[in-house]
Amino acid sequence: MTRKWQTFTPNQSAVLWLMRDNGTAIFRDGFRRMNWSRNADGSVLIDGPGLIRQALLERALIVCSGDGYVLTDAGAQAAAAILTPPAQVERAHLPLTPFWLSDAQMVAISGWFPKSHGKARLDDRQILSGIVFVFRQNLMWGQAPAEYGGELALRRRFTQWCQSGVMDNALGHLFEQDGDGQSRLVVTTAMLMRHRSGAHAIARGYLPTFTPIDEMEAA
């Protein structure tokens, strides 16, 4: 008979594996999907639904310790019984370094950005790189690294640029090279459609370059 603590959801298994390898975990609740990254101090930062942390607490597998959580003896035993890395560990891993658009990419789309008058805006490269990162990693806006300017700045600029047409022109002309040296869009229709804000923008007609039926491909 399988003992209760040996039965886990994919997210719970991933958290136990990560805490076994990294020790302390810092949880940020309130996100629809789980993502994780390592902090500079060696702890692991885990974003996701609060139910993940709550379930492990209720089963006495983790316990609060300082600003984070650590495995209990039962949690360490459960983690040791997971013999191979859960698939969710790889799927939910955020890159160690944020994504930044290159000078050449910014030059290619610079003509579509409005000129700044009066108070200077946050850097266009900073904000647009953050927006691209959110869609490529399928993150909630609050999960974007702080280097991009913060959740409010990203959400507000995305909305403004959608309404003005800047976003469609920018994303529709941002290309990169794939492993075979072929050009492809930095953000695809599939990436936009899996994200709530991207799918909403397409449904509202703000991104006519991107349609769920006929995705634009690089020439």
Write up what this structure looks like.
This protein is of the alpha+beta class and 219 residues long. The protein folds into two domains: 4-91, Orthogonal Bundle (Arc Repressor Mutant, subunit A), CATH 1.10.10; 103-203, no CATH class. It has helices spanning 10-22, 50-58, 73-80, 87-91, 103-109, 124-137, 151-164, 166-172, 189-193, 196-203, and strands at residues 25-29, 35-38, 44-48, 62-65, 68-71, 175-177, 183-185. A three-stranded mixed sheet has the order 1-3-2, covered by helices on one side. Strands 4-5 form a two-stranded antiparallel sheet. The chain has a two-stranded antiparallel sheet with strand order 6-7. A hairpin with a 5-residue loop joins strand 6 and strand 7 (183-185). Helix 1 (10-22) crosses helix 3. The chain starts with 9 loop residues before the first helix and ends in a 16-residue tail after the last helix.
